[in-house]
Specification:
Elements: E1 4-10, E2 23-29, E3 37-46, H1 50-54, E4 72-83, E5 92-98, E6 102-106, E7 111-112, H2 129-142, E8 149-152, H3 158-169, E9 173-178, H4 181-190, E10 195-198, H5 205-212, E11 217-222, H6 226-233, E12 236-244, H7 264-269, E13 272-275, H8 285-297, E14 305-309, H9 314-320, E15 329-333
Parallel strand pairs: 8-9, 8-11, 9-10, 11-12, 12-13, 14-15
Antiparallel strand pairs: 1-2, 3-4, 3-6, 3-15, 4-5, 5-7
The structure holds NADP nicotinamide-adenine-dinucleotide phosphate.
């Protein structure tokens, strides 16, 4: 085992868009696990849009990081050493660890990953937090029914791609917004969406929806916000349900844009708009993961992962989320499994 560990710190708070200078890679000795702790070697690291909120001092839906703090992420890794925990060397675990080659964690803060359920990376994607976000946001908040039209933004991403397929399993007509023709082809040809809209090719989102959702929108899963959401609001039907999952188009905004607001449409339609956090459903995570696992095994739900190689490239993988460089779940592969 090497003696040196690499890890990323928050170098400074970004003004608007983060860049490489937001991150600092430092070296230290590989940490030793204290009593009740394990040492984990990182195999896969998840980069997620919510981390942008943690880089600001103000409130977001996750607590802020301090400048100089190690960055943290969902990690899948291999136990290297256990100091009085139930884990053994070679076990594959997942938890909230550091952007690092190695990190220590309390055994009680880690969960086992069962490699028989699928590739271990899926514990950070379709069978992990993003999959569960799609599951609860769709089934509990957006609640598409057979015959409904369901619209999802960020449709080719980790959450959106799964949300659209769950809506499809409910019998809805599914329309997804995504940022390239390649992504639209992925939605329509691989995931079975009824229509994809490349929002980079048109400014008239309303006209695109007139064509893709001619009967209006009954259920909307929003990952993006901004003008696309304004256009979807203008198409809501009576008793529509809107799940606000994310607003990535605004995460780097230095000022919150105003204008056009479509809230009047909510009066006419008696539609409900509801924000949610996946963590609110924690007592039911196991049930969701089991169901998602069954769907994946039966090929009812398909998933894609975009894997960036090397811890040193983790900042680029994170920054790429805001440029739409990923299809499906964006991961960083930091190490290979040895056991
Ligand atoms: N509420 C919760 O508990 C919860 C949990 C997890 C995630 N989330 C939220 O869910 C959303 C999706 O997360 P994810 O992990 O699945 O990420 P993701 O969709 O895999 O990646 C982000 C995607 O957002 C799109 N995007 C970036 N900037 C955009 C812009 N200005 N306008 C429109 N689209 C843009 C890009 O795709 P295009 O090429 O299509 O632009 C990019 O691939 C995020 O907003 C995240 O904050 C919420």
């Amino acid at each position: 085992m090497p003696e040196t560990n690499r890890k990323y710190l928050l170098a400074k708070r970004p003004d608007g868009k983060p860049d490489r200078d937001t991150f600092e890679l430092v070296e230290e000795d590989v940490p030793e696990p204290g009593p009740g702790e394990v040492l984990v070697r990182t195999l896969y690291l998840s980069v997620d849009p919510y981390m942008r909120g943690r880089m600001d001092a103000g409130e977001s839906y996750a607590d802020p990081w301090e400048v100089g703090d190690p960055l943290r992420a969902g990690v899948v890794g291999e136990v290297v050493e256990s100091n009085g925990t139930n884990f053994e060397e070679g076990d594959v675990v997942t938890g909230n660890l550091q952007w690092a080659d190695y990190a220590t964690a309390r055994g009680s803060d880690l969960q086992s990953v069962n490699p028989d359920l699928g590739p271990i990376s899926t514990a950070l994607g379709v069978l992990g937090m993003p999959g569960r976000t799609a599951y609860f946001g769709t089934r509990e908040v957006a609640r598409p029914k057979a015959g409904d039209t369901f619209v999802v933004t960020g449709a080719a991403g980790a959450v959106g791609s799964v949300a659209g397929q769950i809506a499809k399993l409910s019998g809805a007509r599914v329309v997804g917004f995504a940022g390239s023709d390649e992504k639209v082809a992925f939605l329509e040809d691989e995931l079975g969406f009824d229509a994809g809209i490349n929002y980079e090719e048109t400014d008239d989102y309303r006209a695109a929806l007139d064509e893709a959702a001619p009967d209006g929108v009954d259920s909307y899963f929003d990952n993006v916000g901004g003008p696309i959401t304004d256009a979807v609001f203008s198409k809501l039907n009576v008793d529509a349900r809107v799940a606000i999952c994310g607003q990535i188009s605004l995460y780097n905004a230095e000022e919150m844009p105003t204008g056009p607001r479509k809230l009047g449409k909510l009066i006419e339609t008696r539609a409900r708009v509801e924000g949610f956090l996946v963590g609110d459903f924690a007592p039911r995570f196991e049930q969701a993961t089991r169901q998602l696992g069954e769907w994946v095994a039966e090929d009812e739900i398909r998933y894609r992962e975009t894997v960036t190689e090397g811890l040193e490239n983790a900042p680029d993988a994170f920054l790429g989320l805001f440029e739409g460089e990923n299809i499906g779940k964006q991961l960083v592969q930091v190490g290979e499994r040895e056991a």
